[in-house]
């Protein structure tokens, strides 16, 4: 079995050439990564759309209200005041936060919509879950 002689590789220049080539490749990869850096104007928006937000919130509220005693079958409609607002740093390249749309109102149609006790429960759940005032909530009975 032959022994591995590092000094011989240095004398021949093979190891030196391999190290130089690996260094150049590494520098090239670093340079290429800076060229493909995200450009804010080309950056795809991965945030949710307003319609997706509205549908998700409606589903969540419906799911929550269906668990409340006396509500029965339930349908929820949300109205949204504005779209998603994104806040960027001064150089417009880094998003710092995303402000969710403001809910203008909620309509809840449910089987128990004619019972004052159920109406009070629904108002409490909706106002607390969505952090809105009771003036923005309308409850009605589902059509039989």
Give a structural overview:
- The chain starts with 5 loop residues before the first helix and ends with a strand.
- A 3-stranded mixed sheet has the order 1-4-5.
- The chain has helices spanning 6-12, 14-35, 50-65, 116-130, and strands spanning 74-80, 85-88, 95-99, 103-110, 137-141.
- It has 144 residues and is α+β, with helices and mostly antiparallel strands.
Low-confidence stretches: 39-47
Query: Helix count, per DSSP?
Result: 4
What is the rounded Rg? Answer: 30 Å
Percentage beta strand: 15-25%
Shape: elongated
- Fraction of helical residues: 40-55%
Structural class call reads: alpha+beta
**Head-to-tail CA distance between termini:** 91 Å
SSE string, helix = H, strand = E? HHHEEEEHE
Task: Offer a concise description of the structure.
This protein has 144 residues and is α+β, with helices and mostly antiparallel strands. It contains 4 helices and 5 strands, in the order αααββββαβ. The longest helix is centred in the N-terminal third of the chain and has 22 residues, at 14-35.
List strands and helices in order, with pairings.
Blueprint: H1 6-12, H2 14-35, H3 50-65, E1 74-80, E2 85-88, E3 95-99, E4 103-110, H4 116-130, E5 137-141
Parallel strand pairs: 4-5
Antiparallel strand pairs: 1-4, 2-3
Relevant terms:
elongated, 5 strands, single chain, alpha+beta, 144 residues
